[in-house]
Design a protein that fits this description.
Blueprint: E1 2-8, E2 14-20, E3 28-32, H1 35-50, H2 65-75, H3 84-98, H4 108-120, H5 131-152, H6 178-189, H7 196-206, H8 210-214, E4 221-222, E5 227-230, E6 239-242, H9 245-257, H10 280-289, H11 299-310, H12 315-322, H13 338-353
Antiparallel strand pairs: 1-2, 2-3, 4-5, 5-6
């Protein structure tokens, strides 16, 4: 059976120590800052011992959170190249905050404390970290624990599952007006970065993400079909993007000028042909020269989606081009396709009623 002892230190802070006694097994103890967590631990530990699961997770009493994160970064993240850089940074932050803790000692309240700290901190751009970004940090740690449960058998508990996600703001729909688009393209054309103009045109014409464009290789370009095949996407699925009109002309021109032994479309001129060009400085200057307010590179993707919606594309079409797994993310553009929706309903009504008034009989 399990017993919970309430303790209080000199500062008046309370803690709850769990003791689980099952005949034939050594006494198991653990300490928590809340009684709710202590009860959950007692219940789960008893059940695990009776089912023969508990002592198979001895690693949780020896391995630290740092050990878990290091193994995840080494073994799992290479399988996720599109998100490897971001998740490595996120996981290293958790490692810095709670890495010294033994896995078994990590509680959901500790994870919550770090989550709240993340929420209050400012980013390198001196902005308060968004709820969406904080949730990505939490998701990265949660998946590391999920792998440790399913594949490594280091523990049988994921404390992140008991931590609530922050409510995220509605997705941005910032897109370029016609005048803003002309100003930005003009600034990019004059940029010291020789590839920036073509990169921005590709982003506006295809809706591809920045990393997807910068990592493009010539093997991804199929001139005979006039498409771009993205093999490494954020969602881990192959995506086909139409390469049309002006964007196609620019890529063809780039192919004619570039050496045949260069694999990347946009290689760095300083770091070598195997490293993509760095557009940060050129992009920031172009945005400044174009006098754009509150505009990020990712908003080029929003602009492409918005233009498609206003041109009558269905949400399913937009979702397929952008690579959204569900229509929920695409619905942010639904208000821009009102004209198309009206045409669909008008066409349906015309077929059903023609020009008749339903309240009159012939």
């Amino acid at each position: 059976m399990a017993a919970i002892e309430e303790r209080e230190n000199a500062k008046g802070e309370k803690s709850y120590r769990v003791k689980v006694r099952v005949k034939g097994y050594p006494v198991q103890t653990a300490t928590f800052t809340t009684k709710t967590e202590a009860k959950a631990c007692a219940r789960n530990t008893e059940a695990a011992i009776h089912e023969g699961r508990y002592f198979s997770y001895s690693a949780s009493k020896k391995k630290t959170v740092s050990d878990l994160i290091d193994r995840y970064i080494e073994e799992i993240l290479p399988l996720k190249p599109a998100s490897m850089a971001d998740q490595t940074r996120q996981l290293n932050h958790w490692k810095k905050e709670i890495g010294d803790l033994v896995i078994q000692d990590l509680t959901s309240s500790m994870v919550t404390a770090v989550r709240n700290k993340l929420k209050s901190q400012t980013t390198v751009r001196n902005q308060i970290r968004s709820a969406a970004t904080v949730n990505r940090y939490l998701a990265a740690l949660s998946h590391a624990f999920t792998i440790s449960i399913k594949e490594w058998e280091w523990t049988n508990d994921n404390p992140c599952t008991r931590v609530s996600k922050l409510r995220e703001a509605r997705g941005r729909t910032r897109y370029l007006s016609k005048d803003e688009r002309f100003r930005l393209l003009d600034a990019c054309y004059k940029s010291c970065n020789q590839y920036l103009y073509t990169i921005v045109v590709l982003a506006l014409s295809t809706g591809a993400r920045k990393n997807e464009i910068l990592s493009l290789k010539w093997e991804n370009i199929h001139f005979d079909r006039e498409v771009i095949q993205l093999n490494e996407t954020k969602n881990g699925k192959i995506r086909i993007l139409p390469l049309q009109n002006y964007a196609l002309e620019l890529v063809l021109d780039l192919r004619r000028k570039q050496k045949l032994n260069v694999a990347l479309l946009f290689p760095s001129t300083k770091s070598g042909n195997h490293i993509p060009t760095n557009i940060r400085k050129g992009w920031d200057k172009a945005v400044s020269d174009a006098r754009l307010e509150d505009f990020r590179f990712h908003d080029l993707r929003h602009s492409a989606a918005s233009y498609m919606a206003m041109d009558g594309a269905s949400l399913i079409d937009i979702a397929q081009i952008l690579g959204h797994k569900t229509l929920e993310m695409t619905k942010r553009y639904s208000h821009l396709s009102d004209a198309h929706t009206k045409k669909v309903v008008a066409s349906m009504n015309n077929k059903i009623f023609g020009k008749r008034r339903p309240d009159l009989r012939e």
